[in-house]
Amino acid sequence: MAEGRLVIGTKMYSSWSLRGWLAVQLARLEVEEVVIPLAGGSTRAIQDATPAGLVPYLEHRGARVWESLSILEYCAEIEPRLWPSDPVQRAAARSMAAEMHAGFRALRTAMPMSILNRFPGRNRTPEVLADIARIEAIWREALLGSGGPFLFGSRFGAADAMFAPVVFRFLTWEPELQAMSRDYVAAMRAHPLMQRWHDEAAAEPAEWRLAKYEQVPGA
Ligand SMILES: N[C@@H](CCC(=O)N[C@@H](CS)C(=O)NCC(=O)O)C(=O)O
């Protein structure tokens, strides 16, 4: 029986929802999944269903958890292996997750998650390329330290969950990436939870598609 619910947005586009959903899956919480279609702006349905008017939002055993990073931390209390066991590595993983949560605005704005689309070569502004360079640098440091294939070793963890939408963005927008980043993107994409999210996004009703994320930018 469900012990709560996870409220998320359209899987095709809702990058923050993907982060919360991955954490909930990795911690194996038994919650009902409530998907509210995004409308490209604030919606009454999401405002009514969540404290901050944003998805993801988790209710579990009496806890009310909003903000994707808080959901990750809540899930890590139940499944501590979401973070590396080594304190030095754990500090790095938390810093990367926090940097993703707070930053990379140029990339997030110019290269939205739109899972089934392919827009190679588009929107490579200097600000976006700077974000991508920083992401590649921190991925590289983590992967070299852990040996991969995930950021902190063999287990898909919280830091990977935070960067999962970046993986889908890179597959859509196809920026030029270093070989190590390409290998990481491939390892992430092959993970069963990423495959499941992709397939469930592809199965969403056609009427949930939003023109702003479906059109080739600038066309
Ligand atoms: N800082 C929040 C950001 C959440 C967010 O911006 N979610 C978007 C969808 S990806 C949203 O709910 N937008 C309101 C709407 O579309 O009605 C988090 O980390 O959870």
From TrEMBL:
Gene3D superfamilies: 1.20.1050.10, Glutaredoxin (3.40.30.10)
Chain ranges of the GST C-terminal domain: 86-219
InterPro entries found in the cross-reference section: Glutathione-S-Trfase_C-like, Glutathione-S-Trfase_C_sf, Glutathione_S-Trfase, Glutathione_S-Trfase_N, GST_Omega/HSP26, Thioredoxin-like_sf
Domain GST N-terminal: 4-83
PANTHER family: GLUTATHIONE S-TRANSFERASE OMEGA, PTHR43968
Protein name as catalogued: Glutathione S-transferase
Biological source species: Teichococcus vastitatis
